[in-house]
Amino acid sequence: MDEKIDRILISEDEIRDRVEQLAASISQDYQDRGPVVLIGVLKGSFIFLADLARRLTIPRVVEFIAVSSYEHGDTRSGAVRLIMDVRDSIEDKHVLIVEDIVDSGHTLHYLLDMLQSRRPASLKSCALLRKAERAEVDVTVDYVGFEIADEWVVGYGLDYSERGRTLPYIGVIAT
Ligand code: PRP
Q1: Is 41 in the pocket of ligand 1 (CB under 6 A)?
Q2: 172 near 152, Cβ under 8 Å?
Q3: Domain limits for position 144
Q4: CATH number at residue 106
């Protein structure tokens, strides 16, 4: 185990099982609707998106988007900025935003607003993790893998200073 990891919060097996369940509900909800456009939010979602996309049993298209939060020292202002857009139009398409984590909710709120203005046929969101107690804006997450407490977590796409992203589990950082 990485020396900075205090303990494993969600094991590799637990993640695999939950991703399988999420993929089954999404596949059921979107069946007969045409392809779903999965928009992975970089960088954190890349592993979750890869696993989720491969377990879906419906037609799907993969896109990526990148955003950045403005930071002042250790705190985030809540303002979000687009760094990289999706490649194709989403007009009249069924879109599912795929996030690794919803924390304050500002990132997802920004993305839902921005993508909705492009008139998709439908727009929903899926996050592997959600820290409900950290919410600063009211944002709906349609599919949630795990509700977690306010701890600093890494692994399965999430990082601490770009480290730990490829850990196969979600671990809690020792503080
Ligand atoms: C993380 C995560 C979400 C966002 C959630 O990204 O991937 O996109 O923060 O936080 P919020 O709900 O408070 O807006 P981060 O900015 O750490 O970038 P990364 O995905 O490239 O690591």
Answers
A1: yes
A2: yes
A3: 12-71+78-150
A4: 3.40.50.2020
Q: How far apart are CA 82 and CA 111, in angstroms?
A: 9
Is 103 an active-site residue?
A: yes
Contact 11, 171 (CB under 8 A): no
Mean per-residue pLDDT of the chain:
94
- pLDDT tens digit sequence for 6-60: 999 999 999 999 999 999 999 999 998 989 999 999 999 999 999 999 999 999 9
Candidate list 29, 92, 103, 138, residue with the active-site label: 103
In this structure, the number of other CB atoms found within 10 A of the CB of residue 33 comes to 13
> In angstroms, rounded to a whole number, what is the distance separating the alpha carbons of residues 46 and 63?
11
Tally of domains in the chain = 1
> Which residue matches tokens 């796409």?
157
